[in-house]
């Protein structure tokens, strides 16, 4: 027997889902849920963020719509313990309940501090906080770049203190110093200042100041983001961090080249006091003038003492003058005595010179010349005899017969070599002729002339280019048809005829009477 129908009301799946949705939303409404973020991958391409909140026993899905995500004061991260405020609802598409978060805050300062400490240790392990990589701040910069909010009191305090101490050119690049986009903007501005080319229309800063006023840990969280720390560490321009008050500490303070307790203190660290510099320069100028006067006076005293120690000019020249007078007196007498001595020597030599003695000298010279001439003749005869005897000995060693035989043998070898060369040249010529004949036959075979000889024709257009397809010829085009014995001129008439498709003959069906 069929079962009797039940009296229970019948619902569709959609009706059940909507009823559950209304029940959950009316029963709970807005709630505060404490849990650990799980499955967070950042905002979706639509701008919404999807993740889950869990504890040690349960898990609930969570979503932050795009409009609320931009108002959250810190960036959610995987594993962070948070307190979420929102509305409980269900998602009928997957039969799940979830919380639509409108406010999100860390579960106490301890969670943020733990996250901050873990990030600090990780960046320090990479060497971003090493003191060896920090650069000195220029003593007197010409241009200062300031990264801060243009509407706060920070920029006014910095400009006022710079004007009081030492007025310089200031470039202010406005950024948001709080909120979701503040970290990305600060990092982009630091990179932008470093990208300014030296000597361009916009002056490149000599030092950067990243400044913000005081606030809570959540307010200053943008300067703890990794992107800001890495941008400060990679900056080629020396950077001063002035975030918060003296008791506030952010990670950019460790990566910066210098940390200032306040934005005003950063301005004081960036430039010296102009009045103090003027006073110092004036004091140094006075000290330099006094030192120069004392130096000149000391040199003058030394010169006077040296002058007093020097002897008088007459005393210095007395001895040389007396020596000169004595030498002058002896010079006249010495010249007279020398002249007399040379005159006496000349007279003695002149007494020995006479014609008879000169004749004897000439006669002795002629006798020596005759003796040398006679010796030269005999020496030439002896030298010629020696050369003749040496030549005779060499001629005795030469035999005519062996020379003739060697000439005959050489002539025979030359004849044989000539015969071999002629035969080799003939073989080379023969092989070259064979290769030439084979190449000629191959050329004739491959030439289109041989194709024309078999009854084919070559069709070219007006430009002389071969016509390969009928579709490329239009009616009225001039054509040239080359045959074996000459060329013909032709004009194309009509449109090209497409080739007929090959018909496929259907096989005949076998009759019932035949098996084939």
Give a quick set of tags describing it.
OB fold (Dihydrolipoamide Acetyltransferase, E2P), disordered C terminus, alpha/beta, 13 strands, Rossmann fold, about 525 residues, five-stranded mixed beta barrel, single chain, about 50% helix, five-stranded parallel β-sheet, 13 helices
Question: How are the SSEs ordered, and which strands pair?
Answer:
Elements: H1 13-28, E1 30-38, E2 49-54, E3 59-64, H2 66-69, E4 81-91, E5 96-106, H3 109-125, E6 143-148, H4 153-165, E7 169-174, H5 182-195, E8 207-212, H6 226-234, E9 239-243, H7 251-255, E10 258-259, H8 263-270, H9 274-309, H10 313-352, H11 355-397, H12 400-446, H13 448-453, E11 458-460, E12 478-482, E13 487-491
Parallel strand pairs: 3-5, 6-7, 6-8, 8-9, 9-10
Antiparallel strand pairs: 1-2, 1-4, 2-3, 4-5, 11-12, 12-13
Helix pairs in contact: 4-8, 5-6
């Amino acid at each position: 027997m069929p079962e009797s129908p039940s009296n229970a009301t019948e619902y569709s799946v959609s009706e059940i889902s909507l009823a559950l949705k209304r029940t959950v939303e009316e029963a709970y409404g807005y709630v505060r849920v404490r849990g650990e973020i799980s499955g967070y991958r950042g905002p979706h391409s639509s701008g919404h963020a999807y993740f889950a909140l869990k504890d040690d026993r349960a898990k609930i899905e969570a979503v932050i719509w795009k409009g609320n995500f931009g108002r959250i004061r810190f960036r959610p991260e995987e594993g962070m313990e948070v307190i979420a405020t929102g509305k409980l609802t269900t998602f009928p598409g997957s039969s799940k309940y979830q919380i639509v978060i409108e406010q999100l805050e860390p579960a106490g300062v301890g969670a943020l501090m733990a996250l901050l400490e873990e990030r600090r240790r990780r960046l320090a392990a990479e060497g971003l906080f090493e003191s060896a990589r920090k650069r000195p701040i220029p003593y007197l910069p010409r241009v200062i770049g300031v990264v801060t909010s243009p509407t706060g009191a920070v920029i006014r305090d910095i400009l006022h203190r710079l004007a009081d101490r030492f007025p310089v050119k200031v470039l202010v690049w406005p950024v948001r110093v709080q909120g979701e986009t503040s970290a990305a903007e600060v990092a982009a501005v630091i990179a932008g200042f470093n990208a300014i080319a030296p000597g361009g229309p916009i002056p490149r800063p000599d030092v950067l100041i990243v400044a913000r006023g005081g606030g809570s840990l959540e307010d200053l969280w943008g300067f703890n983001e990794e992107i800001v720390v890495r941008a400060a560490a990679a900056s080629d321009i020396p950077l001063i961090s002035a975030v918060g008050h003296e008791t506030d500490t952010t990670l950019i303070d460790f990566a910066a080249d210098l940390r200032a307790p306040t934005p005003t203190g950063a301005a004081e660290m960036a430039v010296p006091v102009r009045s103090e510099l003027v006073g110092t320069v004036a004091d140094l100028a006075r000290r330099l003038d006094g030192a120069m006067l004392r130096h000149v006076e000391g040199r003058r005293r030394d010169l006077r003492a040296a002058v007093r120690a020097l002897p008088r000019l007459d005393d210095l020249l007395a001895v040389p003058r007396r020596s000169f007078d004595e030498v002058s007196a002896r010079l006249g007498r010495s010249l007279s005595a020398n002249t007399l001595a040379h005159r006496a020597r000349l007279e003695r030599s002149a007494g020995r010179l006479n014609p008879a003695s000169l004749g004897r000298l000439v006669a002795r010279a002629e006798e020596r010349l005759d003796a040398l001439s006679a010796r030269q003749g005999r020496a030439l005869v002896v030298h010629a005899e020696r050369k003749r005897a040496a030549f005779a000995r060499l001629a005795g060693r030469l035999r005519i017969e062996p020379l003739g035989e060697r000439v005959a043998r050489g002539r025979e070898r030359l004849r044989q070599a000539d015969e071999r060369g002629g035969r080799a040249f003939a073989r080379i010529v023969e092989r070259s002729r064979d290769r030439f004949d084979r190449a000629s036959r191959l050329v004739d075979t491959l030439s289109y002339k041989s194709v024309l000889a078999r009854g084919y024709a070559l069709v070219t257009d007006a430009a002389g280019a071969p016509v390969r397809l009928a579709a490329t010829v239009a009616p009225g085009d001039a054509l040239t048809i080359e045959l074996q014995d000459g060329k013909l001129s032709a004009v194309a008439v009509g449109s090209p005829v497409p080739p007929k498709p090959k018909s496929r003959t259907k096989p005949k069906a076998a009759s019932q009477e035949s098996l084939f």
